[in-house]
Design a protein that fits this description.
alpha+beta; GMP Synthetase, Chain A, domain 3; Ribosomal protein S3 C-terminal domain; 2 domains; four-stranded antiparallel sheet; three-stranded mixed sheet; 7 strands; globular
């Protein structure tokens, strides 16, 4: 019974996330958490622009609450909206931004360079944007384009600290897949040595050693 409940909750979360991705795209949706208690079902939604979710005098959030209760058979839903402090460091937000720009018909290279510049300017240690599909209209063939900046790990334990998100842009020529990887500014990779810091510590160690010899 417990296993079935976990499976059911997991499926609800998957479909809820898909629903919110489409519903709150303009608000910069970046993910949600579902917390069940004996009294309420709390849905924590992370977005770039909370005002679009809440609406005038809370009208939009009340309508969203009713829709979630009906669509997903949830009781006593309470929605909490959290604003993303730095949207440019959130992989989901940036992937959706790229998707919206591609759907507007903007050139893919311009979008990719603009997005990765924004990510790095926000303080990211590294970033990668990959898009694939028919990028140049109906006559073009499907291909993949990639742009990378900074320091990025894709394998091993350090790769778990990289934020990854996927999105899709729907264009007349077909679907374009988007993958964004971001290394947050607070990540410390064990194998990456700060050469400047090591040099300063080495000089300080030599200096203290010389002082000890003179004292003796």
């Amino acid at each position: 019974m417990i296993e079935r409940r976990f499976v059911k909750d997991g499926l609800v979360m998957v479909f809820l996330d898909k629903y919110l991705t489409n519903k709150l795209r303009k608000a910069g949706y970046a993910g949600a958490d579902l917390q069940k208690t004996p009294l309420v079902t709390r849905v924590i939604i992370k977005v770039e622009r909370p005002g679009l979710v809440i609406g005038k005098k809370g009208k939009s959030i009340r309508e969203l609450t009713d829709e979630i209760e009906k669509k997903f058979d949830l009781q006593n839903v309470q929605i909490k909206v959290e604003e993303i402090p730095v949207p440019e460091l959130d992989a989901v937000v940036m992937a959706n931004r790229i998707a919206r720009s591609l759907e507007k018909g903007l050139h893919f290279r311009r979008i990719m360079n603009w997005a990765i510049d924004k990510i790095m300017a926000a303080g990211a240690l590294g970033a990668e944007i990959v898009i694939s599909g028919k990028l140049v209209g109906k006559g073009g063939i499907a291909r993949k384009e990639r742009v990378t900046r900074g320091y990025l790990k894709k394998a091993g334990e350090p790769a778990k600290q990289v934020r990854i998100a996927h999105a899709q842009a729907l264009r007349k020529a077909g679907v374009i897949g988007i993958t964004v990887r971001i290394v947050p500014p607070d990540v410390v990779f064990p194998e990456k040595v700060d050469i400047k810091k090591e040099a300063i510590e080495a000089v300080a160690g030599d200096a203290s050693g010389s002082v000890e010899k003179q004292g003796s």
